[in-house]
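Bug #77: duplicate submission created two jobs. Keeping one. Sequence:
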Amino acid sequence: MASSKTAIYGALVANLLIAITKFIAGIAGKSGSMISEAIHSVVDTVNELLLLLGLHRAKKEPDASHPFGYGKELYFWSFIVSILIFGLGGGISIFQGIMHIREPESIGDPTMSYWVLGLSVLFEGASLVIAVLHFREVRGSTPFWEAVIKSKDPSNFMVLFEDAAAVAGLVIVGVFMYLNVTYDLPILDGIASVIVGLILVAVSAILARESRSLLMGEGVSPNTKNVICELVQKDEAVVKVLHIMSTYQSPDEVLLMLIIEFDHDLDTLEINDAIDRIRVDVKAKYPLMKYIIIQPDILDGTLDRHPNRGANRMGI
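Kept job's structure:
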């Protein structure tokens, strides 16, 4: 989590400084695409602040109104970030680009804009390198796209996608600005803004999809379910694991519910002892399983006819 914050803080500082210089260059050089890039940097700055807010609020301890904690705060704010990228970043850039295409305006002296673009690429590139190194450390040998899909911490890949989109946008603006100045085609300024906006919309769609999945209650992988099932069924008191349900409360906390058929000859005390053993074994294998609810049942669902044969225990 600390390394996640390092990447976010690096991006925050870079985007704030770049946004200021882009606005100055865009206004002085009458460049719509540069102003679009400035808006992009402002949105990214706000995004980093929201991610830090989500990380902070996710650490709040459980209370009476939120017995499973506040871990999903991170997923909520990550989803808000993806919406901001779409609306403020992509939407405004596309709108401004269309306006400049309809009413092209000759660019002013591009010298300052070139300097700003160069410095922006340098700073955004440094931030991107930090994000790439952090994500590489997190994903290990897992393929890139698979790691994005499997990641339960949006802060691990959000900064990476934001910085990659920023660098791509800067390169596009630089190329189109050069063509604009060289061939006196003011319409290219608006086209560059539209392309930058479309890149942001595409990135926001990817981030929104992943954040939404986690916010809606994404569970552990099928492979993890199989391992847990095999582990539980090794206990001598277990006949069969009937159902496994789970949901990520935060990147570091999972709520797990097991519905288990126990040996029918066991009494309540013996079943409770078995539940305690299972809870300890599962937590030893998967420390992320902070909340474990175990419900005894039998395959035909008639356990409630034999009250001395079952118990309901929650391990925290």
